[in-house]
Amino acid sequence: MSKLMIVGCGGVASVAIHKCCQNSEVFDEILIASRTKSKCDALKEKLAPNTKTKISTACVNADDMRDVASLIKAWEPDAVLNVALPYQDLTVMDACLEAGVHYIDTANYEPEDTEDPRWREIYEERCKRLGFTAYFDYSWQWDYQDKFKKAGLTALLGSGFDPGVTSVYAAYAQKHYFDEIHTIDILDCNGGDHGYPFATNFNPEVNLREVSAPGSYWEDGRWVEIPAMSIKREYDFPQVGMKDMYLLHHEEIESLAKNIPGVKRIRFFMTFGQSYLTHMKCLENVGMLRTDPVDFNGQKIVPIQFLKELLPDPASLGPRTVGKTNIGCIFTGVKDGKEKTLYIYNVCDHQECYKEVGSQAVSYTTGVPAMIGSMLVLQGLWRKPGVYNVEEFDPDPYMDALNKWGLPWVVCANPKLVD
Ligand SMILES: NC(=O)c1ccc[n+]([C@@H]2O[C@H](COP(=O)([O-])OP(=O)(O)OC[C@H]3O[C@@H](n4cnc5c(N)ncnc54)[C@H](OP(=O)(O)O)[C@@H]3O)[C@@H](O)[C@H]2O)c1
Hints:
Elements (H helix, E strand, L loop, with lengths): L1 E6 L3 H12 L4 E8 L2 H11 L6 E6 L5 H11 L3 E4 L6 H11 L2 E4 L11 H14 L8 H4 L2 H7 L2 E4 L7 H12 L3 E11 L13 H9 L2 E5 L2 E5 L5 E6 L3 E7 L3 H9 L5 E7 L2 H12 L8 E3 L2 E3 L1 H8 L13 E12 L2 E12 H8 L3 H18 L7 E4 L5 H11 L3 E5 L6
Helix pairs in contact: 1-14, 3-4, 8-15, 14-15
The chain binds NADP nicotinamide-adenine-dinucleotide phosphate.
């Protein structure tokens, strides 16, 4: 008998909620709580006739810790799944501590206002100390370790696909295939086509911030930072084909460097078409990716937020996106004294996802693992007091659940490596 409160009702949340409703044995009751209650109500109306899961809805301001905490106290869930935006991670974590419930999310904290002087001071010190300049990093949430330990509560960080499934693949490779992993290349390929000249597959603001930031990778115990999109490779992805991919900074590099002993290099590559890159560069050059407020006709507007209003809603891409995603990890290392290479990946078809839950594969590949992480916490299989990334738990039940709930994986020996 478990109750889950879900914060946010966007593209990822919608898939996670569909999946909770398919899994009523675990999720007896869910509360969908988001800024725009009408979206929560519409989803409830769609799902309620075909599920045993009891669905409630509420309006919540996730930027306000007290608002979230009082809703948790009133509804009394066992855990909160935060699938709003990374800006709200800390307020939702604080609310979980205040109300005494477990916490799960899919993306690490970043501030909405990157000009906030208090945040900026800590950020600039971190840039110097760690050597990467992305706005998001785990230090803010890892700092909650003692608070969650003392409260006897679990905070599970990053249970999406990347981070999330890719990190569980690493834990699984470590447990079953290697004595020591030496390199990890995480390859995120979206071979889908939505037919628009330019659109992002998840929240445009978060997505564009991520991909316009300098790239970086982990090598020999330190970060190496490079200009955005300056390392390009080609890879022939199973079931998708040959694609250009670019090295990006990505949050799971930070946690895997800490949690996979002996790893010497971790890189993250994402595929982009030339049209996407040209649009993004142009938007950046004219200032549309700025995250600080500017004056416009006597009003303050944040250019990237205004741009979000103009771009297609990622949730609307489902019916028009065709093709497949392929996301996975290539590992090199040693087993029983012999060198070894391995590729673990998932292929997901946009139209199959749309048929099942009404969303494209990028939301699907994040929403399914968000449900799985929540399920394992609720079942007590992944529960220990403190703040943990997904690779710090036993990967086996998560890997079994991926096969069961729509994201089957393939293990391939001796893959082509990325140079
Ligand atoms: N790990 C991964 O693989 C992965 C991949 C993709 C995305 N993600 C993460 O998943 C999360 C959700 O992404 P998405 O694409 O679903 O975003 P989205 O479609 O923009 O949905 C965000 C939802 O959060 C709600 N929200 C925003 N601010 C809020 C506030 N202050 N109070 C209450 N609700 C608020 C929004 O409400 P409105 O409806 O009113 O706007 C919306 O329903 C993000 O953190 C993203 O970084 C992770």
